Amino acid sequence: MNDMCKHWYLMVVDFVEKKIVWLDSLHYAERDDFRRRAILQMVIILEEILVHKSYNDNITPCSPERMISNFSLCKPRHIQQQRPGSHDYGHITVNTATRMKLAIHLVKSKNNLMYDDVLSKAAAYWREEVHKRDFLVSC
């Protein structure tokens, strides 16, 4: 999910536990209400897809396991940058390498229709950064 084209956070629909999990690496209390509403709106959209007759003819359209709006929305779990010696067990802790691996896996996914566009933009950005660095070194 994206907040104001500035921050990404993750919504996970757990069908086994019947929960909607909200993971956020940049907790900003003033945006919690907006993010919660955005998650609930997405839940309704997903539910409409799941109960639509074209989704799967073999499953009853309004079966309880497909009614995501009945799932509980967990409080946001804030992902924090890992710090040496930090033992805050109330949060999920990741490091920069873990975030980068996740980003690479999402970009490289066969389902990513923007794969070629993302790669070309990344390459252009890298060339620009190299050019800036070379310019600074030559000064």
TrEMBL record:
Q: Does the keyword Hydrolase apply?
A: yes
Domain Ubiquitin-like protease family profile spans what residues?
1-60
Instruction: Give the domain of life.
Output: Eukaryota
Gene Ontology BP terms: proteolysis
Transmembrane annotation, as ranges? none
Q: Which InterPro entries match?
A: Papain-like_cys_pep_sf, Peptidase_C48_C
Q: Alphabetically list the UniProt keywords.
A: Hydrolase, Protease
**Molecular function (GO) terms listed?**
cysteine-type peptidase activity
Is Nucleotidyltransferase among this UniProt entry's keywords? Answer: no
Q: Which family does it belong to?
A: Belongs to the peptidase C48 family.
What's the protein called, per UniProt?
Answer: Ubiquitin-like protease family profile domain-containing protein
What is the source species?
Answer: Trifolium subterraneum (Subterranean clover)
